[in-house]
Amino acid sequence: MSLPFHGPTAGILVIGEEILSGKVEEENARYLVRELRGLGVAVRRIDVIPDEIDEIAEAVCGMSGRYDHVFTSGGVGPTHDDVTMAAIAKAFGLRPARNLELEAKIRSAMGANLHERDLRMADIPDGARLLYGPDGDRSHWPVVTVRNVYILPGVPEIFRYKFAMVRELFRTGPILSRAVFSRESEAVIAATLDAVVAEFPGVAVGSYPRLGLAEYKVKITVDGRDAAMVEHATARLVQGLGAAVVRTE
Amino acid sequence: MSLPFHGPTAGILVIGEEILSGKVEEENARYLVRELRGLGVAVRRIDVIPDEIDEIAEAVCGMSGRYDHVFTSGGVGPTHDDVTMAAIAKAFGLRPARNLELEAKIRSAMGANLHERDLRMADIPDGARLLYGPDGDRSHWPVVTVRNVYILPGVPEIFRYKFAMVRELFRTGPILSRAVFSRESEAVIAATLDAVVAEFPGVAVGSYPRLGLAEYKVKITVDGRDAAMVEHATARLVQGLGAAVVRTE
């Protein structure tokens, strides 16, 4: 949880039996990690769990306390396996309640094709907020939000459409990242990495070996929010690694 | 956690700062979910967390108690961010200790290129088992295992090589799956799904809407271990949905 540099954090909770059973490839967390990173938010955890009320409630409760923002994906339709709203209500001790603004939107959108079950999508935790995006255009479908939990649907196209409405809420100073490529193995360079980690507690140093590449054996990353510190740590790393450095990025 | 059908379960713990920061796409959980499903093991949770000892220890401890098998990916090299072995030792109250069999293998493999830091990869939880695969061929690198936790590396090629050594340990009766495609929306078919869910408590029914396809609006899946029950539930679903059925798989 504790990154060496400060700034907003997030957890992503994917409610996805279809991912756990291998029927569908996960797309939403993968997308969101990169979006949030670009906005300056550090994702600290991704959990993929089944559509079970108690398990969702427990995970939401834990993430909501640990991270600045929590995003859920999935389980918000009208069928038996859509239990996310009930679970989030349970997580915070709230009552699920029919939201009249959502009900009116569903009735208006469906017209003569309305089925009673469509209205289940208007049953949300009592006290939830509806977020409409920066232009306040209420013709969109809002993002249902409870405390710091943003509830998004599992269908990737709608997930992206809805996240786009709220994304500017999360923009903050960027996370900067440099990379150094080493022709020597991790064991050879480990002591140098240790020294840089000890000297620069404000950056995160990652070490990622690759197999079978002619160009390099290890990619080392230096991440942080303070540009001078990231540059300084990278320079120290390059100096320490000497002839092992293939190139930097 | 509780699937409607019985059988072995698994949790997957990905220790991957590079995934959380969006630098690398997750491959190992994605691979393992399908392998385990093919072997008859139901994955019930995938967590992606940073390389932090306390967080790994807490996650391993929780998963080890909840699922039959736990697989970890990543954090087993010789650098500062490789803390998985220490974390798993902590999870079970074990001491990290130099394993002589692993030390001998590392010394033999590295020869004159041995670096002291390579030997850190021989420091594993005291009492861990080394698994060599069904042929018992000790020229391979073994899979380090503590209780029901199988510790695998993050580099995808090595992850797959090592999992292949132990995969036959997990084979059990298959999980069967049928699919029914509906031209009607979830709201229209929800009552029929409810009825099948209520009538067949031994199968798992999933409902997955798709946008923008001409062929169908919802894919419904019926999973279980009892072939007759899966067929029976699928037939009931097809009967209940009537003209909404596009096709089955």
How much β-strand is present in the residues of chain A? 15-25%
Give the helix tally of chain A. Answer: 8
Order of helices and strands of chain A: EHHEHEHEHEEEEHEHEEHE
Q: What's the overall average pLDDT of chain A, rounded?
A: 94
The greatest interface here is: A-B, 65 and 65 residues
Estimate the helix proportion of chain A, in percent: 25-40%
* Inertia-based shape of chain A: elongated
User: Helix- and strand-based class of chain A?
Assistant: alpha/beta
How is the quaternary structure best described? homodimer
Low-confidence stretches of chain A: none
Biggest sheet, spatial arrangement of strands of chain A: 2-1-3-8-7-6
From the N-terminal CA to the C-terminal CA of chain A, the straight-line distance is 27 Å
Overview of this structure, please?
Helix content of chain A is 36%, strand content 24%. The first copy, chain A, is α/β, with parallel strands linked by helices. In chain A, the strands form three sheets. A six-stranded mixed beta sheet of chain A has the order 2-1-3-8-7-6, sandwiched between helices. In chain A, helix 3 crosses helix 4 and helix 7 (186-199) packs antiparallel against helix 8. The mean pLDDT of chain A is 94. The interface between A and B is large, with 65 and 65 residues. Strand 2 (42-49) of chain A pairs antiparallel with strand 2 of chain B.
